[in-house]
Amino acid sequence: MAAAAVAVGAAAFFAYGGGFTNTDAAWTLVWGRELLHLDAPSFAAGATPHPLPNVIGVLAAAVHPADETVLTVLGYLAVGALVMGVFSLGRALFGVAAGVVAALLVFTRDTLLFYGALAYLDVLFAALVVWAVALEAARPRRGVPVLALLAVAGLVRPEAWLLAAAYWVYARPPGRVAVLLVLAAPVLWAAHDLLLTGDPVFSFTTTTDATGRSGRPTGLEGVFSELPRDVARTARPDVCLAAVLGLVVAWRAGRFALLFGALVASTVATAIPVLAGTPMNDRYLMVTMALLCVAAAGPVALLREGGAWRLAGAAGLALLVVGAALEAPRFADRRADGVDRAERRADAHAALEPGVPCRPVVLPNNRLIPVVASWLDVPIAQVRDGRDGVPPGSYLWGTDAAMENLVVIEGRAGGAAPAPSAPVVRRAGGWTLSARCDR
């Protein structure tokens, strides 16, 4: 199964068009470099820190300049693991044919394409959780192995804490090891924050504070206005409809409680932090999306039966075929967008090579700060947001087309500072490196 996951990850790399390290992942490289040098990590300057990604960041930073490659490889291995986890779960619930269909469904979701190609570690989280459900489906009330996977997942995203607690209540595995695994992730996360920031709830308060500044909906509004729309957008409507029939198939096979329970638990676990003040985001719903793909493949099992049930299975499969045809242009557009972004980002990197005349390096806004700090292997304090002023230094600016959805993100507030006037050092694609050094 591990070899199959590697093969699927490699296939995804070509199918998804490669990719690049997103801004959030780039922060893990910055923090990894800082931790590697025993410096205090600049958590307050960036995205929400997560314990396991920070460990990965340290390991990746140790092999700079191949650190981005490490995250890209890990991202695609996570895609392979998620697809194979979905196959394993679908096979356990509905048979091999359904497992194959479920795997194809999740592989072709444009959401997975986007977050897999951009090395979001949320894909790793989803893979760990889906494999935990698959282990439970293969052997009910398995206990410690399921909790062990959820404990690791809980170091990537806190939703796994709730899933582990819910599973412990459901399965009641005996022994202290099970209890320790339920408590391990939240305790280690709090210890991580306390040791590195002095505040055991730093990650939570940082996220809620950032949400307040962004104006994104949270609480009941965030759950009821954003969550249903994000579920439909992530899994796609045809999968959601077929999943309803798949749940009926699971009920007939005596597997309804596990599949429906996992769906409800994963969605509720995503909603609770939103109720508490963190933002809704479709990448937090990848577990729900993967489980819906498994449920949507359930009607394939009805093709082995006769009469009305076979017709129902054929109808469910036809719905997925139509959905796949409608999804293909969306998938192709998402792939083309990712390839285009990667090329424009590579141009920005090329404009910085072989280096800058002087520092700090000033950028149009904050989105490329961790990326450029990682590329140049310099402290984060030496890379600045041009909206806060343009001191003497080196300036990397792109045209509007070059910066689109890399620096200036469609639908998000922020914008970019005007390009400063300074002598040009070099150009690459739509990017210009200029400098005004204070000698």
State the gist of this model.
The protein has helices at 2-15, 23-36, 51-61, 67-94, 96-107, 110-117, 122-138, 144-153, 159-171, 176-197, 202-214, 219-235, 237-252, 256-275, 286-297, 307-352, 369-376, 400-403, and strands at 361-363, 383-385, 393-398, 424-428, 431-436. It is mainly alpha-helical.
Task: Give an overview of the whole structure.
- By secondary structure, the protein is mainly α.
- It has two domains: about 1-335, no CATH class; about 355-435, no CATH class.
- About 65% of the residues lie in helices and about 5% in strands.
- It is built from 18 helices and five strands.
- The protein has helices at about 1-15, 25-35, 50-60, 65-95, 95-105, 110-115, 120-140, 145-155, 160-170, 175-195, 200-215, 220-235, 235-250, 255-275, 285-295, 305-350, 370-375, 400-405, and strands at about 360-365, 385, 395-400, 425-430, 430-435.
- A five-stranded mixed β-sheet has the order 2-1-3-5-4.
- Helix 17 links the parallel strand 1 and strand 2 (about 385).
- Helix 5 (about 95-105) packs antiparallel against helix 15 (about 285-295).
- The chain is globular, with a radius of gyration of 23 Å.
- The chain starts with a helix and ends with a strand.
In spatial order, strands of the major sheet run 2-1-3-5-4
> What oligomerization state is this entry in?
single chain
Question: Which structural class matches the secondary elements?
Answer: mainly alpha
In angstroms, what is the radius of gyration?
23 Å
Q: How many domains, in number, for the residues?
A: 2
Distance between the termini: 60 Å
| SSE sequence, one letter per element | HHHHHHHHHHHHHHHHEHEEHEE
Largest sheet entry:
5 strands, mixed
Which overall shape is indicated by the principal axes computed on the Cα atoms? globular
Tell me the helix content: 55-70%
Runs in which pLDDT lies below 50 for 5 or more consecutive residues are none
